[in-house]
Write a structure and sequence with these properties.
Length: about 325
């Protein structure tokens, strides 16, 4: 195994030269529960470590979603797509992945494989959320988004796989970031009801580094109705691609989404089909303190305290 000094040099490079905001390292043993075909060694045979990092999303870009859902100003939502979701964040991660992988190879002499940053490059991806959890960067929220104590869900993640065996960072052990029994913001503000209410035992469990956590069983078909912009106000078809109310679609009901965006690639913003047309679960989540900082500025008219039980506050 390489020394802690080598691991620290890699992390310092990620934070300075690659300009990332957080970084952690997970040993290969933390991926024992990875689904078949999505284990790090399926991407890099002999992988011993996964270096995971994140970039903070600008609050001003994420908060552009409020203009869509509160003011019905649909044209501004592209700011979120470009700077708060798939555009600038993923390209920053793309180049960070490249820089970090080159640095690791030069420093250690071991192979280092950069993971694609988002579904913009046509390559199969590991779950970067689960990688971030395994590297100790934070915890899952009920929405299934990865929360960091500093930024809540307002992060995008990247990862480099390497055959260099590096010391793992500790799992996150700070205050619990999400309590779905008391905070219902993501559930109540989901436009299509894709995030089910919390009930004990209903969570999906994941374990890494000896730490188990649960998160919500999101209905991804319902989620796609909104996040892919199937409503007439969110695409250029002039019509709803699928019904927008009281609808629980099957996957085959949503085939029209792919067909429409294949025929209209200009609307995709470098994705196979756009997935940035919503973002409520990310933008309204109170973890990361945006609401404390901006709630009295007129930025949003939504009182998220109405969806939080008395006595609970996000710890960060």
């Amino acid at each position: 195994m390489f020394s802690q000094e080598i691991a620290d040099k890699i992390k310092q490079f990620a934070l300075t030269e690659a300009r990332m905001d957080k970084v952690g390292i997970a040993g290969i043993d933390r991926f024992n529960e990875s689904p078949e075909g999505l284990h790090p060694t399926d991407f890099l045979p002999g992988c011993k470590s996964v270096i995971v990092f994140c970039i903070r999303l600008p609050d001003g870009a994420v908060n552009a979603t409020f203009r869509t859902f509160e003011d019905l100003n649909y044209g501004i939502h592209g700011v979120y797509g470009a700077f708060g979701y798939v555009g600038a964040p993923n390209y920053n991660l793309l180049f960070a992945n490249y820089k970090i992988s080159r640095f690791v190879e030069k420093l250690t002499g071991c192979a280092a494989t950069p993971e694609p940053a988002g579904p913009t490059h046509g390559a199969k991806m590991m779950s970067l959320r689960h990688c971030a959890y395994a590297a100790g960067l934070g915890e899952f929220g009920w929405s299934s988004l990865m929360l960091t104590p500093e930024f809540g869900p307002r992060n995008r993640f990247g990862a480099v796989l390497t055959t260099a065996e590096l010391p793992s960072d500790p799992m996150y052990s700070g205050p619990k970031l999400c309590d779905p029994s008391k905070c219902h913001v993501c559930e109540k503000l989901c436009p299509t009801g894709a995030i089910a209410p919390y009930t004990p035992g209903s969570e999906r469990l994941v374990c890494a580094g000896g730490k188990e956590i649960g998160y919500g069983q999101t209905n991804w078909s319902k989620c796609r109705i909104m996040c892919h912009g199937t409503g007439k106000d969110y695409n250029e078809s002039g019509t709803d691609l699928v019904p927008q109310t009281d609808y629980d679609p099957l996957n085959e009901d949503l085939d029209i989404i792919g067909k429409y965006f294949d025929a209209h690639p200009r609307e995709n913003f470098h994705q196979h089909s756009p997935s940035w047309k919503c973002g409520n679960c990310l933008s309204y989540c109170p973890v990361g303190s945006w609401y404390r900082r901006f709630s009295d500025t007129g930025l949003t008219g939504t009182k998220i305290d109405d969806y939080i039980d008395d006595g609970w506050r996000s710890p960060t």
